[in-house]
Amino acid sequence: MHRPGSRNPLPAAQVHNHTLAMDWIAIISGFGIGAIVGMTGVGGGSLMTPLLIGVFKLNPAVAIGTDLWFAALTKVGGSVAHHRHGHVDYRITGLLLAGSLPAALATIALMHFTGITKGWASALTFSLGIALLLTAVTVAYKQLWHALGLRLERWLPERRRNALTVASGALLGVLVSLSSIGAGAIGATLILLLYPRLPAQRLVGTDIAHAVPLTLVAGIGHATLGHVDWPLLAALLVGSLPGIWLGARLTRSMPERLVRTLLCLSLVTAGLKVIH
């Protein structure tokens, strides 16, 4: 029994040992990705889909669906914690969800209506590569986005800002549904551009509070298409929970610039590999 979406099923005699080995690899991979998420706050989870494709040989659609569930479940705890500390701006979260949830549902509905053709497979792969490169840019130039947001502020009256927030949510809804990436670093950057005076803790808390329902809705949509490897997801989650805890601890001792540089290099490498 090989994992759904894998390309190279093994002979029956090797399946048991192979499954045990892959489960351990999944737990270790989940631990590593969890540590990155814990250290960087946002963006680290973007490495999960390329890892699922490159290491576990899932086709892009199954990798995207599995990553959506991984993102939703691993961010629930963070969302609750930020809520308890008052770090969530629910007005901004509501505006983003007003755009992102309908866009995600429409994208999934279109996949259901047309079926996952070769054209969809190419679109998913291309969207994944572009999302990885966009995430690298947003992580690398965090201070630039803040300065740009302050300059744009004078041109954004409240009504226009609200409309742009809903539009940003719609963009994220499509991007997340197609690539599983965007709700973290790209979402935070869009919030930073539109609300540059939002305190850092509230920016992160609002971004995570928006990401949980969006990735969950998109994940449910992909699950209805059969795009989730549940046993692999369970193994990844087993490793990720202690990984996130350790990553949060390591944040205090590792230079932020070093972490961001390594993350950006990994994202660019993964993005270029996926596109090519």
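^ that was protein a. below is b, sequence first then the tokens
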Amino acid sequence: MISEGDPVPKFEANDANGAKVKSTDFKGKKHVIYFYPKDFTPGCTTEADEFSKDYKKFQKQDIEVIGVSPDDVDSHKKFCDKMKIEFPLLADIDKDISQKFGVWGKKKFMGREYMGVMRSTFLVNEKGKIFKIYPKVKPAGHSKQVLEDFTNLN
């Protein structure tokens, strides 16, 4: 995983509408990049719902929110429509962004090992530097914690 103080890795992916989104689009802006395993799963739905409900609060502080998962554009579109998500969800189908951030790796569930996204969040300042990392996120209450930490740490 990358470390606090590191610059944001360069990335490019399509959002839920098929538009190309690049890391350079957020240059000079504060932003949250959160990685989650899969659209429509219970934890991911909770996390997306909370970020959606708090999105206006993030915008008031000029903070952009970006979600990333290995799901494709169609899945993200359905998820955004159902959950009323206004911020970009990026389709990291080839796991390139997840690997650059170091969140793609071996996971265990019910005794089974498999490769997947480790739920993680990165806070980025206007200089493009990561100033806070949450390596093991619990979805409930995470959005409020991120907003509070952004306010206190930056």
